[in-house]
Amino acid sequence: MKNQASVRPIITPVILAGGAGTRLWPLSRQNSPKQLHALLGGHSMLGETLLRFADSSKFGPAWLVTSETLSSAVAEQLHSIAPDRGRMVLEPIGRNTAPAAAAVALMAMAEDENAVLLIAPADHSIRDVPGFLDRVALALPAAMAGRLVTFSVSPTRAETGYGYIKRGHPLPGFSGLYEVAAFVEKPTRDVALQYLASGEYFWNSGMFLFSAKSFLAELEIYAPDIVAGVRDAVAQRTAAQNFSRLGVEAFTRTPAISIDYAVMERSAKVATIPCDIGWTDVGSWGELWNVSEKSPDGNVVIGDAVVIDSRNNYIRGEGRLVAVSGVENLVVVATDDAVLVLNRNSTQDIRAIVEHLNRAHRTELVDHSTVRQQWGIRRTLIGDGTSRARRLTINPGKRLSVRCPVQNSTHLVVVSGSASIALGDKYRILGHTESIDVPAGTAYRLENSASDPLQVLELQFGPSFDDDDIQVLDTVEAGATKQS
Fold first, then answer.
1. Spatial contact of 40 and 292, defined as CB atoms under 8 Å apart
2. According to CATH, where is 2.60.120.10 located in the chain?
3. What is the reported pTM?
4. In this model, does residue 213 exceed pLDDT 90?
5. CA-CA distance, 155 to 161, in Å (whole number)?
6. 482 near 416, Cβ under 8 Å?
7. CA pseudo-torsion sign 45, 47, 51, 54
8. Which of 85, 305, 438, 459 has the highest count of CB atoms within 10 angstroms of its CB?
């Protein structure tokens, strides 16, 4: 076991990449939540989070905690944006942030008893990244001394959708840090206005810095059942290269609770560091309008759109033309299979739409028919209970992660371009109209090493067409033998 007590530690980012994918419907879905989308820049929100911790002199490789359902998409982004800078922990069921952090803390301590963890959701935006990293460095001595540090954000408006932290007295011996006087749940607007005027209340960002040892010690005091369940789940985990799958039975019986409720609101070791870093959790279409670049008329326009005599709208077209005229303060989002129109000042009401779709068992709540990935585009053409057809467009120089269908057999047909396929211990190159069968239980990878886009028709046959049937592996090259 490595001991780093005498040197400055490398911080280990823990990126929470789960999520239900409902607050930004119809762009986000259950199988494609907001962290997988590019909302404010060229990269997805997960990609921006990974890049935030790219400096290997400050940060070690990240742990990404996600679900089996999202594992394929998260792995694709990790391999594309930050190869060799992360490993994944797969939860069999969502149990909120405290069990997720506890699982990584246990595994990190097995490698380094002095590990320092930075907990960061994958779907938050930070405009001033250097400023944030400066605050992390300022908070590090307190974390090393056993404090559980939470990052509180200077409020810019009377927001009712966030929890708040009331700043206490300065923390003796640590510059820029404070004791926490109170954690406050989401307030009414009148109360939020009072908080804003006081200067003593800050938004609770949901980001934390602490040593794994200190966090687990406090969790043992205030939520010992979480530690017990997670310890068993970690002991029962299965590993495949840089993936760890937590034990199903033990993790399922672990209570579902947030870090705030489990520890932060109860521990005497909590401290806070106020930040003015341009932070937002992008929790609604209205918030996305707030932080996006606008035209002189106050419109945010993304995609192919015609906008006439309209003001203060958020308009987004995903692959289709959107035309509006004579409207104000609206959100208009058009995807391949759904259109959303609602008042920009009432975007929290999307919860009612999602609940209606859920009661009606609408598939539009679960996934898009067209999904953009780092490697290209996947479009579902048709599917029923026994078969599914998808068209894969793989960009030049890109490849998919190695995947292994557990129950389904797959037939791949090259529609255009040239496909490099690693199948088990074989390697083949297929041209136009050539095809190959992938039996169930066989690992394979598709790659486009040519200069033109590759179009592949993927036909699947079997008992299950959930992405849960696909095991995503790290690499197949070690066992592949290239053949001419």
1. yes
2. 375-482
3. 0.80
4. yes
5. 12
6. no
7. positive
8. 438
Give the pairing of strands 314-317 and 300-302: parallel
The 8-class DSSP code of residue 469 comes to G
Identify residue 379 by its one-letter amino acid code.
R
Within 8 A by CB and 6+ apart from 17, the residues are 35, 46, 64, 65, 66, 70, 74, 122
Q: How confident is the model at residue 6 (pLDDT cuts 50, 70, 90)?
A: very low
For 165-191, what is each residue's pLDDT tens digit?
999 999 999 999 999 999 998 899 999
Strand 339-343 relative to strand 330-334: parallel, antiparallel, unpaired?
antiparallel
DSSP-based helix, strand, coil % in the chain, nearest 5 = 25, 35, 40
Find the helix packing angle between 45-52 and 71-81, rounded to 10°. Answer: 50
CATH architecture of the domain formed by 11-280:
Alpha-Beta Complex (3.90)
Using an 8 Å Cβ cutoff, are 11 and 60 in contact?
Answer: yes
* 310 pLDDT more than 50: yes
pLDDT digits (tens, 9 = 90+) for 396-448: 999 888 888 888 889 999 999 999 999 988 899 999 999 999 998 898 999 99
DSSP 264: I
What letter would DSSP give residue 262? I
| 413: amino acid identity, one letter | V
Task: Give the type of residue at 206.
Answer: G
> Please, where in the chain does CATH 3.90.550.10 lie?
11-280
Structure token pair of residue 18: 């789960």
Tell me the CA distances in angstroms from 66 to 7, 20, 48, 320, 381, one per residue in order: 31, 11, 17, 31, 27
Query: Among 438, 408, 433, which Cα is nearest to 422's?
Result: 438
Residue 466, pLDDT score:
56
Are 365 and 354 spatial neighbours (Cβ–Cβ below 8 Å)?
yes
CA distance 446 to 301: 35
Report helix, strand or coil for 62. strand
Relative orientation angle of helices 212-222 and 224-235, to the nearest 10 degrees: 120
Residue type, 323: A
Class assignment of domain 375-482? mainly beta
Structural contact between residues 100 and 107, judged by C-beta atoms closer than 8 angstroms: no
Helix H segments across 292-412?
350-359
